[in-house]
């Protein structure tokens, strides 16, 4: 029987192709440790790995299995920079901070590729990413962006594509132009989760699955995390649950909102297919972004339906097929073998949320769809902070991230209305 995540809907192609997925034990009994980590996705497993390699005693707990949430089920695109374009951040924060944030993201990209290579983790890396305009009026922005990246941010890997080149590289005339980035790529995310957990365990981290945190307190210089079958007492704590925090910690919950993003996988399209012949990943200019790519074996992995709130959709295939057909009419009858989703964390300004939410307790999340690359690196930055160097993490901590309006009662319906308004704008 295929494995189905208990917290994320649908049957994932990643599950069927990730190879052996080890089981780790549940916590049974009390523990004393230097650092306790709550959450076994990219952020938590990366932090556990780097802490353990530095000689820190670390215990990590995950409520379900590693990769059951968004870390094991996302679109797999690395991207470049932060979620916002570098020139947008420059307009908001000034050039110095914008360049520092861009360089931090480039460090994150390099770290991910170096870490996987050094530890023998095959993540199915494929190079290239295209960002495309779904409205003609956006094309000039993409052209200017390519020039700015080279001239102001010392990143020469982005080139502008006119409508003809875009059509040739996509195999579709649906878009009006865009950019091609040869300095990034896309991966199989669950293979990264599985590999990082293996490295963390080998480095000496104590990692536990199926262990739900039932509470966190911090007083007297100690952090206490309770679970159904044991209490963990530590000097420091990292909360790395992102969209799956629920009511665990109120400050994080007020700043990070879960949204559901859903993906479909087709059968292999064949060597003669004109769909993305160069193998790049693609994202478009919609606010409710569509993102798609081909796998190593030639399947189209297409994501694009977002749900705001946490009600699981029952019709993933239907909606994904409709969106595929808009871009690739010849694929209207293609077989979709898998349809799945996961909940990612967003913030109001779509920038990451990093904050010390109580003494000795740092929370990380809200990557807003840009977390494959950033979240793994943030785990490393947390380990640096524990070792006494908080300089790089402070670049993120200092970002102004307001809470969602409306409090716990009204924030979901307010967000639903706002984001559906943006989705309507995408169509006008």
UniProtKB/TrEMBL annotation:
**Protein's UniProt keywords contain Transmembrane helix:** no
Residue span(s) of domain FAD dependent oxidoreductase: 34-384
Where, by residue number, does the polypeptide cross the bilayer?
A: none
What are the alphabetically sorted keywords of the record? Oxidoreductase
Which SUPFAM superfamilies does this UniProt record tie to the protein? FAD/NAD(P)-binding domain (SSF51905)
- Matching PANTHER family: FAD DEPENDENT OXIDOREDUCTASE DOMAIN-CONTAINING PROTEIN (PTHR13847:SF281), SARCOSINE DEHYDROGENASE-RELATED (PTHR13847)
* Protein name, entry field: FAD-binding oxidoreductase
């Amino acid at each position: 029987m295929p494995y189905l995540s208990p917290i994320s809907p649908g049957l994932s192609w990643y599950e069927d192709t990730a190879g052996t997925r080890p089981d780790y034990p549940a916590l049974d009994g009390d523990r004393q440790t230097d650092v306790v980590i709550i959450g076994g996705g990219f952020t938590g497993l990366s932090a556990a790995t780097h802490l353990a390699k530095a000689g820190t005693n670390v215990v990590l707990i995950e409520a379900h299995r590693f990769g059951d949430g968004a870390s094991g089920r996302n679109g797999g695109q690395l991207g470049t920079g932060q979620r916002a374009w570098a020139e947008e951040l420059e307009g908001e924060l000034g050039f110095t901070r914008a360049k520092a944030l861009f360089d931090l993201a480039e460090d994150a990209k390099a770290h991910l590729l170096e870490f996987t290579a050094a530890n023998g983790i095959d993540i199915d890396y494929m190079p290239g990413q295209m960002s495309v305009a779904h409205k003609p009026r956006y094309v000039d922005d993409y052209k200017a962006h390519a020039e700015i990246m080279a001239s102001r941010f010392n990143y020469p890997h982005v080139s502008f594509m006119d409508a003809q080149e875009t059509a040739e590289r996509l195999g579709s005339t649906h878009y009006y132009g865009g950019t091609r980035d040869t300095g990034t790529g896309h991966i199989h995310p669950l293979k990264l989760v599985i590999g990082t957990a293996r490295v963390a365990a080998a480095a000496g981290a104590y990692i536990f699955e199926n262990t739900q945190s039932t509470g966190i307190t911090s007083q007297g210089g100690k952090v206490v995390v309770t679970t159904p079958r044991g209490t963990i007492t530590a000097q420091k704590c990292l909360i790395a649950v992102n969209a799956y925090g629920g009511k665990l910690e109120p400050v994080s919950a007020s700043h990070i909102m879960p949204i559901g993003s859903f993906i479909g996988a087709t059968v292999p399209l064949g060597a003669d297919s004109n769909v993305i012949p160069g193998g790049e990943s693609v994202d478009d200019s919609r606010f409710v972004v569509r993102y798609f790519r081909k796998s190593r074996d030639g399947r189209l992995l297409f994501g694009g339906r977002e749900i705001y709130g946490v009600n699981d959709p029952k019709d993933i295939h239907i909606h994904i097929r409709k969106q595929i057909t808009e871009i690739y009419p010849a694929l209207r009858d293609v077989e979709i073998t898998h349809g799945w989703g996961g909940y990612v964390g967003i913030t109001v300004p779509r920038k990451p949320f990093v904050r010390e939410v109580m003494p000795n307790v740092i929370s990380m999340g809200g990557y807003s769809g840009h977390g494959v690359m950033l979240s793994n690196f943030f785990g490393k930055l947390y380990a640096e902070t524990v070792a006494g160097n908080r300089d790089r993490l402070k670049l993120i901590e200092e970002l102004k991230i307001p809470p969602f309006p409306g409090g716990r009662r009204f924030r979901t319906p307010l967000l639903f209305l706002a984001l559906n308004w943006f989705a309507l704008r995408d169509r006008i």
